[in-house]
Write a structure and sequence with these properties.
alpha+beta, five-stranded antiparallel sheet, 3 helices, 123 residues, binds adenosine monophosphate, single chain
C-alpha cells in the first residue's frame, strides 16, 4: 500500500493538527489516543512515511528503527507501566482493522487488560 501523506498522523507530525503529546524525540512522537480503550492508551509513531510494521522494517533506516523501538520502551517506562504491566499492539491492514495508514504502536495500561484477542477463533 502506498503511503498517503494526508493521513491524520502525518498531519499531526507536520503540526497541522494538534495532539496531546506524551513524548517526542528525533525518531518518534507519542500522544494520547483520542478514543482511549484503557485508562492509559498512548500511540507511538515513527517520524517517517511508513504504513505498517512490514513497510517500516523493510524500508526504514536502521537508526530510525532502533530509535523508534527505544522510544516505545521509554514511553512505557515514563508512563509508569513497566512494573504493573502493559500491552503493545500494532494493527496492519484490513484484517486487523487498521484505521490510520501510518505505522503506530498502541500502548495500553492502567488496569488489568482483557484477553489478547476477541475469542472468535477456535482451531
Ligand atoms: P488503528 O485502528 O490501529 O489504525 O488505530 C487508530 C487509532 O488512532 C484509534 O485508536 C483512534 O482512536 C486513534 N486516533 C484517530 N485519530 C486520532 C487523533 N487525531 N489523535 C489521537 N488519536 C487518534
Amino acid at each position: 500500500m502506498a503511503y498517503d501523506p494526508n493521513n491524520i498522523f502525518a498531519k499531526i507530525l507536520r503540526g497541522e493538527i494538534p495532539c496531546n503529546k506524551v513524548y517526542e524525540d528525533e525518531h518518534a512522537l507519542a500522544f494520547h489516543d483520542i478514543n482511549p480503550q484503557a485508562p492509559v492508551h498512548v500511540l507511538v509513531i515513527p517520524k517517517g512515511e511508513f504504513v505498517s510494521m512490514a513497510d517500516f522494517t523493510a524500508q526504514a533506516p536502521d537508526d530510525l528503527i532502533v530509535g523508534f523501538m527505544r522510544a516505545v520502551g521509554k514511553v512505557a517506562e515514563e508512563l509508569g507501566l513497566v512494573e504493573p504491566g502493559y500491552r503493545t499492539l500494532a494493527n496492519a491492514g484490513a484484517n486487523a482493522h487498521q484505521e490510520v495508514p501510518h505505522l503506530h504502536i498502541h500502548i495500553f495500561g492502567g488496569q488489568r487488560l482483557g484477553p489478547m484477542l476477541d475469542r472468535t477463533f477456535s482451531a
